[in-house]
Amino acid sequence: MDVKVKICGLSKPADVEAVAKAGAAYAGFVFFPKSPRNVSVEQARDLAVLAPVGLAKVALVVNPDNALLDEICGRVAIDILQLHGEESPERVAEIRSRYGLPVMKAVGVATAEDLGQLPAYERVCDQILVDAKAPKGADLPGGNGLAFDWRLIAGRRWSRPWMLAGGLTPDNVARAVELTGATQVDVSSGVESAPGQKNAGLIAEFVSAAQSAGAIPEL
Ligand SMILES: O=C(O)c1ccccc1N[C@@H]1O[C@H](COP(=O)(O)O)[C@@H](O)[C@H]1O
């Protein structure tokens, strides 16, 4: 199956190199000071130029104001904005129109009720990112290595491209793809040796496992 992979939370040149070498489609940079993966605008600018053609650079922001977005979009060669906070559909539409970049909106899921918010976001964004809902009081709205019950979205019809996230690892990504039908997956903590420390071996294993999902084993 042709599964596109996003590796999120890159902070070093070696991370970009590992992601490109593994054949991922997206490289994510986190602009959120509480995250162990947080990067400055300067760091992201220097990392983004290392990405080869074909590797899309994603800026992950959480309830961003225009000043932060102006700085990121003005100084970093970003291809996609990932909104990972409580941005309303109106704010998503405003950001999309103001910056002229594709917007991926993250929606946290824990129960079937959480799926009710999807249509409003599908109307205004370019892609939906379906992530596990962060526990109440968590420091991070994502990047917690938590999965949700994938059966909640199995067989769902989507009106936008979408990506599956939340607690994915090299060991469970193939099963997640097979169960949900996802053609795009996103991972952060599942390819780290410690919080914020990406591991090139795990990145390669993850991409290979995601891309082999659904493949019929050779006899
Ligand atoms: O990775 C982070 O530090 C992060 C911080 C704030 C919001 C989102 C964050 N990461 C995103 O969360 C999901 C799932 O991550 P994980 O694989 O469960 O660790 C993914 O979309 C990351 O882009």
UniProtKB/TrEMBL annotation:
Entry-linked Pfam families: PRAI
MF (Gene Ontology): phosphoribosylanthranilate isomerase activity
EC number, as in UniProt: 5.3.1.24
Alphabetized InterPro entries for the sequence: Aldolase_TIM, PRAI_dom, RibuloseP-bd_barrel, TrpF_fam
Biological process annotations from GO: L-tryptophan biosynthetic process
Entry keywords, A to Z: Amino-acid biosynthesis, Aromatic amino acid biosynthesis, Isomerase, Tryptophan biosynthesis
Keyword check for Glycosyltransferase: no
Reaction it catalyzes: N-(5-phospho-beta-D-ribosyl)anthranilate = 1-(2-carboxyphenylamino)-1-deoxy-D-ribulose 5-phosphate
Pathway info: Amino-acid biosynthesis; L-tryptophan biosynthesis; L-tryptophan from chorismate: step 3/5
Start and end residues of each N-(5'phosphoribosyl) anthranilate isomerase (PRAI) domain: 5-208
Keyword Acetylation appears in the UniProt entry: no
Any coiled-coil regions, as ranges: none
Residues spanning the signal sequence: none
Enzyme class: isomerase
Protein family: Belongs to the TrpF family.
Annotated HAMAP family: PRAI
Protein name: N-(5'-phosphoribosyl)anthranilate isomerase
Organism: Pelagimonas phthalicica
